[in-house]
Amino acid sequence: MALFLLLVIVAIALGVIGVVAKGLFYLFVVGVVVLVADLVLLGVRRGRRRRRLPR
């Protein structure tokens, strides 16, 4: 969970810097990519946990 929160903070920081700083739009794009990758990672982890539950 700590990795997820760290990646979300990094994505938000890159996005804000990319939008505010003129000419650094690529940082916004990198922030969005990191956020999407983080959400995919979270989905994979949650999906893996659900399958391991005993019946």
From TrEMBL:
Residue spans crossing the bilayer: 25-44
Assigned keywords, A-Z: Membrane, Transmembrane, Transmembrane helix
Transmembrane helix as UniProt keyword: yes
Taxonomic superkingdom: Bacteria
Name of the molecule in the record: DUF2207 domain-containing protein
Species this protein is from: Streptomyces albipurpureus
